[in-house]
Amino acid sequence: MMKFRIHMIWLMVTAFVIVLSVNTTRVFADEGKQFKVVGYYSEIFDDPIDQTVQFDKLTHITYAFLIPADDGTLIGIEKPQRLKELVEKSHKNNVEVLIAVGGWSYQGIPLDSAFEKLAASEDARNEFIDNVLEFVHDYDLDGVEIDWEYPDEGVSSQNYENLVLALGDALKADGKYLTAALNGAWSKTEGPSVSRAVTDACLKAFDWINIMAYDMNNEQHSPVWFAETSIRYWLHRNVPKEKIVLGVPFYAKPSWKQYRHLVAENRENAYLDFAKGDPLDSYYNGIHTIKAKTRAALQYASGIMIFDINEDTTDELSLLKAIHDTKESFFSQTFGGFQEIYFQLEGRDLAFIEKDGLGVPYVDENNRTMVPVRKALESIGAQVGFQEDTRTVIAQKEGIILKIPIDKNYIILDGIIVNLDTKAVMRDGRTYVPLRYLFESFGYDVIWHGESKTVMIKSQ
Question: What end-to-end distance do the CA atoms of the chain give, in Å?
Fold first, then answer.
């Protein structure tokens, strides 16, 4: 007799479920085009561009980094031919390219002091702006990202504003973007000092801001909640949704391993957020968490920024592919908003979409997540039929026979009655049963990934 294991995690699943909002309307095609997917491209990597960059899944690429000196001059990039090749291929694929100016450090020395000095001098600011504009023209770039980590409140903040406003005016006169890499926030309303140093005038001058919602600490490197509070903080600062882009990491801490290397070690790591290591563990964002963050960005922001695309795979486990697929799914739906619970079968999305006419999950009066039987079982290759006289669904696969009587608190598995804590029901012409009973009947495990509110269904 097959025994049903009671999953405590299933109680957690139902606690997170929220009823779909079906009254929201969107002009999906227009919003899909406006949603940014910005990939940082670091020149420290030597991977061939054609083997690394998935142009069809990006809207913008930010090349990192152009280094400023404290007198306003620039330290040349190390691989000018690489940048020229990237710009040429990006433009052929309708992808725009920006240059990131700054970063945390150069040759082990933090760049904050260089920014402080050049921003404090009008002559150095003007020299810097002239040099940046010349660089943009020489490489046929579409814009500039300022990555000063970080100005302080007070005089430093005012100097930052002077630099940003002057650079913004110069770039916009030439039809170019000005963006900024800004920090994440632990609170929806109270940002750290480095956030407060970014004035409202600066925020208005930026075409958009890329929020670095990562590097918080090792165990909490870049969780979903940090992404969400970071978005909400900048919304609280009156930055419109259309100018907010959420940053996600494609690397781990404290090991600093790249996502592609973690997957090479064990493909199951693609679906996790932690990997035991020697000597250092890896905390990172796997596919489920990246999808959850993309959903947050689709709802509350206007894009995703990746640091960086060189660290991704290019196969079916690609994190950029996960972002792309989530975006495409969102804008293809005919109803507004997202479900608050998601399903993956053997590592692939199991989507219940209203327009398909096969039913969508809902929560019953017993607080159980009910799923449409036919859609669920046919996804694993089971044959599904309905016996009218007894009002019973009958499913068969590999010699296993499952009978599901409507409005009864039990199912019959290979002739044995198994009691349910709710009952199968008929709704809008579709039969619904708690998901775990369906899949466990045919030998599948049901696992709850709380960070991304995802149910993972895997064969035993």
Answer: 16
Q: Looking at this protein, which amino acid is placed at residue 145? A: E
pLDDT tens across 106-147, in order? 999 999 999 999 999 999 999 999 999 999 999 999 999 999
CA distances 63 to 66, 79, 332, 427, Å, are 8, 11, 31, 53
If you write DSSP's letter for every residue of 302-315 in order, what string do you get? SEEEEE-GGGS-SS
DSSP-derived secondary structure letter, 77: P
d(CA 129, CA 378) in angstroms, rounded, equals 61
What's the rounded Cα separation, in Å, for the pair 432 and 265?
40
Distance between CA atoms of 240 and 244, rounded to whole angstroms? Answer: 7
279 prior amide bond cis, ω within 30: yes
Contact 242, 292 (CB under 8 A): no
φ and ψ of 382, to 5 deg: -80, 145
Alpha-carbon distance 407 to 419, whole Å?
13
Scan for tokens 């026979």, then name that residue.
401
- Predicted pLDDT at 30: 53
pTM: 0.77
Q: What is the pLDDT of residues 15-38, one digit of tens each?
A: 333 222 223 333 444 555 689 999
The CB density around residue 196, as the number of other CB atoms within 10 Å, is: 14
Q: Please tell me the predicted confidence (pLDDT) of residue 40.
A: 98
| Domains of the chain (ranges, CATH numbers) | 8-12+343-459 (3.30.457.10), 27-338 (3.20.20.80)
Q: Which residue has the tokens 């000092």?
A: 193
